[in-house]
Amino acid sequence: MGWTFTSAYDGSGVRAFLDRQFECDNEDGKWEILKSALVRLKTYYAACRWTDKKTGRVRIFAVVALVKYNPKDAEGLCLGWKEMTEDMGPFADECPLSIRDLLDSVATGSDASEWRERVRAWHARRKAAPEPGDIVVFDEALSFTDGSSGRRFRCERFGRRGRAWRNLDNGGLYRISNIARRDFVIERKEISP
H-helix or E-strand containing 53? Predict the structure, then answer.
């Protein structure tokens, strides 16, 4: 499936607008958004209840949409999205657990079950996020644009809320993106004097 762009965005909030786009009621069935979230204005997640009007069957599944929001688009197409369901095995896996927990059970080994496991794993890694002073060892060496690499880093405060990483091999200070997606262990927490 491709991207859908619209100039009909009314400024009511991207999440609310997408909720309305994914709700539908016709002779075949009814689609209702039970709960949704917009993560970093880049990914929309929703628990959708589908009711088959012919059989009465009800199913609750996840809708995932990649989002592009550009209010200054020259053509006026300020909002775009690419939707998929969990059955398509989406790559995006930062779905809030409160949405994930509303979904019906699925067959083990299916694309939907694999996606749900990735969501749980992402949240487990996020809970184990390093704090300033922690020594972190990554499973694989990280390479940087200055030609250096390393596996062992100390988490340091950078600015008011940011984090930077001190390479314990060369003493350099680096930014590491997508820390929650990387495999690592916290070796030990340094004790501040």
Answer: none
33-85 pLDDT, tens per residue? 999 999 989 999 999 999 999 999 999 999 999 999 998 889 989 999 999 99
Burial (0-12, 13-18, 19+ Cβ within 10 Å), 22: middle
> What is the sign of the dihedral through the CA atoms of 32, 37, 43 and 46?
negative
Cβ contacts of residue 166 below 8 Å, gap of 6+? 153, 154, 156, 172, 173, 174
Q: How far is CA 118 from CA 42, 107, 121, 126, 127, in A?
A: 18, 15, 5, 12, 14
181 in Cβ contact with 119 (< 8 Å): no
Over the stretch 116-164, which tens digit does the pLDDT of each residue have? Answer: 999 998 888 776 778 889 999 998 899 999 999 999 999 999 888 788 9
Determine the Cα–Cα distance for residues 53 and 107; give it in Å rounded to an integer. Answer: 24
Calpha distance 49→32 (Å, rounded): 5
Residue 119: strand, helix, or coil: helix
